[in-house]
Amino acid sequence: MTTTTMKITTRNRDRLAVIASSELNGASLDSALDVLLFEHESFAALARLSPGQLAEMQAEAESIAEVDVEVHG
User: Fold this and answer.
1) Segments of 13-68 assigned E as strands
2) Could you list the pLDDT tens digit for every one of the 73 residues in the chain?
3) ∠ CA(6), CA(19), CA(40), 5° rounding?
4) What is the pTM (predicted TM-score) of this model?
């Protein structure tokens, strides 16, 4: 893995550290940044969907969620 150095404000470094610690089980700052970038890219991809595509995706997600909660005794 290649690494680099970048300049960020102390405030942003500390904010990222809080996310890494409190929301990501003490992940490294690099891993926390990776998660945040993935989330950003995911939201951007959703924003590009047409209303029809979004409705189709939501219907599929609801269908999957219902299967996931079924319990058979």
Assistant:
1) none
2) 899 999 999 999 999 999 999 999 999 999 999 999 999 999 999 999 999 999 999 999 888 887 756 566 6
3) 70
4) 0.75
